[in-house]
Amino acid sequence: MTDPVFFAPAGRLALAEVARIAGGEVVRGDEDVAIGRVAPLDQAGPGDLSFLDNPHYIAAFRETRASVVICSAAHAADAPEGAAVVVTQQPYRAMALIMQALFPDAFRLKGPFGEPGVSPAASVHPTARLEDGVTVEPGAVIGAGAEIGAGTVVSANAVVGRGVRFGRDGYIGAGVTLQYALIGNRVIIHPGARIGQDGFGFAMGPRGHLKVPQIGRVVIQDDVEIGANVTIDRGSNRDTVIGEGTKIDNGVQIGHNVEIGRHCVLVAQVGISGSTQLEDFVAIGGHTGLAGHIRVGMGAQISGGAMVKDSIPAGARYVGSPAKPIREWTREQMALKRAAQATGRDET
Questions:
Q1: Which is catalytic among the residues 190, 256, 287, 293?
Q2: Handedness of CA 144, 149, 151, 157 (dihedral sign)
Q3: Is 71 in contact with 91 (CB distance < 8 Å)?
Q4: What are phi and psi of 18, to 5 degrees?
Q5: One fold for both 13-107 and 179-348?
Q6: Segments making up each domain of the chain, as ranges
Q7: Which has the minimum average pLDDT: 22-26, 42-46, 202-206, 338-342?
């Protein structure tokens, strides 16, 4: 079996160029040094670039064989002899910028078929409007009246429904379905996501549950990234909204009428019930559930595995099930620990 490299570097970067892209300063190293790969500290070798962001890996940092390392000023003295050192305030962010430059194909995704243009094996309705430079792969379906902006890739077997609007320089992964949605520029949607299907709305009663028509839309603003197998229901009588720059991990469920602000982060398996509102810069850990009709204030953080049934104020940090402020939760845990220890002493 062959061993393909799916993301080959676009070229080599000289040390000065690494520092420029990283927004850092060369504090040690030969200007003739260049890198062509990126590798973890423990696997890096000559010609490789690596970095230290978490002090947990300081031992590996001191032993790495990378030709160039990126770190903060606090750890520059720990860099191994022989390695060129670039100092920056945010090593992880610097590494991301360098990887974008070195591996553009991993930053601007291509579909699984890998060829530009509109495939003759795709089904594009004659009333659909595609700007120049749109790629539509085999098996993809573009519905009546849909509009797709220049530079967007529609991967194999994706479905862009009737009347959907999708902006420029975006990516629609394999098997994605989009319905009743307005989507901005530079939006990335990973394989298997389902966007714009019916919200879960029923008028419940003793003779059965009457379906409530879902007549809203999904509105996704610019620079949003949506993970694999995410589901985002369209609104029932208003729009479901995902704000600019928000990042949604794999396997997240977002109910109808939910409004998510700008630059929020939702980690895997978060579930948000209908009509809940998240203000800007909210961060929610994995496997967290939010009840419906509540509000999470700007900059609030919710720990993974929490169950949230009430609104949370701006800037708060909540944890637990049911979720509560972290200080309150910590006091309760300490009290339980003391009570358990006292019980143990009494039993002896």
A1: 256
A2: negative
A3: yes
A4: -55, -45
A5: no
A6: 13-107, 179-348
A7: 338-342
Our answer to whether residue 190 is catalytic in this structure is: no
Give 148's contacts (C-beta < 8 A, 6+ positions apart): 128, 129, 130, 131, 134, 142, 154, 160, 166
Q: Which CATH architecture has domain 179-348?
A: 3 Solenoid (2.160)
Q: pLDDT of 129-172, one tens digit each?
A: 999 999 999 999 999 999 999 999 999 999 999 999 999 999 99
Fold of 13-107: 3.40.1390
Could you tell me the CA-to-CA distances from 80 to 50, 74, 84, 143, 203 in Å, in that order?
A: 12, 14, 9, 57, 66
Q: Which residues of 99-138 are buried (b: 16+ CB within 10 A; e: fewer)?
A: bebbbeeeeeeebebeeeeebeebebeeebebeeebbbbb
- pLDDT value of residue 342: 82
Q: DSSP class of residue 57?
A: G
Q: In what order do the strands lie in the sheet with 301-302?
A: 135-136, 153-154, 171-172, 188-189, 225-226, 247-248, 265-266, 283-284, 301-302, 317-319, 324-325
CA 193 to CA 205: how far, in whole Å?
32
